[in-house]
């Protein structure tokens, strides 16, 4: 897995091959195929092992918690040990539904679940409208990071993330006239 990460960083995903990974690791390509069906599977395992758990703060201030966590996420994505591999796998997942599922199941879903829990807490505390689906709120907040990273090929800085959170929360805040209903399933 380390060989796959290192080689991908050096030659890029397009030029990454099972043969190259095997040579870098000092094993035969059959050894690689015994454990992984494709270069993307090796790279995903390497990425999963490289990504540390991005803790989600739980203070009384949802805006501060979101800003802290989103800056941490942007920093992780900017890391040369994570960013290029993550972008390559996201790109490849557009053509490979099995990889898309694996990327979601093994990496992204855990991070989204932590964000959903924080949004639900904010809804219970009256900081975010209770009628909104927490998944929608997560997509609204984190979508700009992915847009800037994958489309504009640059990550938002802390100032930009602060603006994203402040702008989004202004629209997500409960109004005095809003009903206090539970979020939709």
From TrEMBL:
Protein name as catalogued: AcrR family transcriptional regulator
DNA-binding region: 17-36
Statement: the UniProt record of this protein carries the keyword Iron: no
Domain HTH tetR-type: 1-54
Cited PROSITE patterns: HTH_TETR_2
Annotated GO MF terms: DNA-binding transcription factor activity; transcription cis-regulatory region binding
Record has DNA-binding as a keyword: yes
UniProt KW keywords: DNA-binding, Transcription, Transcription regulation
Pfam families tied to this protein: TetR_C_11, TetR_N
Domain of life, per lineage: Bacteria
